[in-house]
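WARN no homologs supplied; continuing
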Amino acid sequence: MVSNRQSRTIADLERTVRAIATEFKTDSVFIIGSQAILLGWPEAPLAMKVSPEIDAFPGNAKIWETQEKAKHPGENPEASEHINALFGEGSRFHETHGFYIDGVDENTAMLPTGRHEHSFAGSRSKTALSLQLHRVRRISLSPSSPASTRKIGSSSKPSMR
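OK structure emitted
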């Protein structure tokens, strides 16, 4: 039998978005992989929510990497590796929250053309964008309101690499 501790929840997605948005100083976080379904279907069957991880990357990953390279010219920083070091398997985050964040990048899944048009820069809320059920969905997290989801655009079926 699957325990609820092994299944992901919308609260886990919110925690993921907050962690990445704070670390990378961004307003948009992409959630991909199996747990992205939670944005559009938080009540999905338990068997669909079982995973020890949430795959995610910050909307400003390339900008962050460029800025970090300028600070440390001898290194080749990758946002996905930074996520894995801070929030990945075996991290303090994993031990504390019972799941880990798998740092991925925009090449993990082919995103729809114009995906950057779906982010909402300049807002005080953090936005999680996900590819699931052939649509892009967003979850806004603001300190004063609960999470809400809505469809923000359709795309062709995403291809996975």
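The CA atoms of residues 127 and 158 lie 20 Å apart.
OK
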